[in-house]
Design goal:
Elements: H1 4-16, H2 19-26, H3 30-44, E1 49-52, E2 55-58, H4 60-87, E3 92-98, H5 100-105, H6 107-117, E4 121-127, H7 130-139, E5 144-150, E6 161-176, E7 196-199, H8 205-216, E8 222-226, H9 230-238, E9 244-247, E10 258-276, H10 283-297
Helix pairs in contact: 1-2, 1-3, 1-4, 2-3, 6-10
Length: 299
């Protein structure tokens, strides 16, 4: 009899392409992945992995079994959804990811309410960028992911996912207190043409949005500094090292040496949650989405 957890490990290896990636996706150690694969090979009676440089690759038998494992696990997920739906209560484990400002400004309240309403439902949360987290939901590594669009740039949502709107998040331009525009009630992006910018990591959706938006207003952006966290960006602004876009969600205290200026053509983010369409019947998914929507009303 094939062991389901070992098939899950093989499926993760096939999807992630490495022992380390499989371990991260399964939230276990690399040693645990290797042990599960060794046991599965003994059960099958033939090698499923072969060395490939410093890593490993699936053998022909490994790929064949991995294809079956993906189908088996899909059926298991549907069966679990049906059983949970029939029971009508949210139980088990819920794995969710959120981008940094939602992780700080939205998720704590939602998960606290969810735990109070459904004490048998265990939640696991991690901070992750939307592109990565949505891919993880498609793979089945996560149940839900919080993601964002910008008002003028949409993020593609895989066809396998369902989405629900949570809130509209306004953004300001943060400038140093001594900045030439600091006393204005509001500004336009074009007025920052001569400023250095503090942006998110290159390759991230928000960085791409900032660069394309500034170029759309005729500004060739000078990205002077890169910082992942908004609080770090604001520290650089206070030091007079540039300006940045800062959202309202999860903002927290603003440094004394920073002025926040609304934009005349408002800059907004659309915050939403996604989950696999085939998990739509699970009461835990519905309960989590409802908790997030209620929490969003209080932001």
């Amino acid at each position: 009899m094939l062991n389901l957890e070992r098939l899950r490990t093989l499926d993760a290896l096939a999807r992630h392409g490495s022992v380390g990636g499989a371990a991260e996706g399964l939230h276990v150690t690399t040693s645990a992945v290797s042990q599960q694969m060794a046991k599965l090979e003994r059960e099958i009676g033939q090698p499923l992995l072969a060395k490939n440089g410093r890593g490993v690759r699936l053998t022909d038998a490994g790929r064949l079994l991995a294809d079956h494992a993906a189908r088996i696990l899909s059926h298991v997920e549907l069966a679990q959804a049906d059983v949970e739906a029939q029971r009508g209560c949210a139980v088990g484990e819920l794995r969710i990811a959120a981008f940094p400002t939602a992780m700080r400004g939205l998720l704590p309240g939602a998960l606290t309410a969810l735990r109070a309403a459904h004490p048998e439902l265990r939640s696991f949360a991690r901070e992750q960028e939307p592109g990565e987290s949505m891919a993880a939901v498609v793979r089945g590594d996560l149940d839900l992911a919080l993601a964002i669009d910008w008002h003028n740039k949409r993020m593609p949502v895989p066809a396998e996912l369902t989405r629900a709107h949570l809130l509209e998040d306004s953004c300001d331009i943060a400038v140093p207190a001594g900045h030439r525009l600091a006393d204005r009630d509001r500004i336009s992006l074009a007025e920052c043409a001569e400023d250095d910018w503090i942006s998110w990591n290159e390759g991230q959706f928000c960085h791409e949005w900032l660069v394309s938006t500034l170029r759309g207003t005729g500004i060739e952006p000078r990205i002077a500094h890169i910082a992942e966290e908004h609080h770090t960006q604001l520290a650089f602004v206070e030091a007079g090292l540039g300006v940045c876009v800062t959202p309202w969600l999860g903002r927290g205290p603003v440094p004394a040496g920073v002025r926040l200026l609304p934009v005349s053509d408002p800059v907004r983010r659309h915050v939403y949650v996604v989950w696999r369409a085939d998990a739509d019947r699970r009461p835990s998914i519905r309960a989590a989405v409802e908790a997030l929507q209620v929490a969003a009303l209080n932001v």
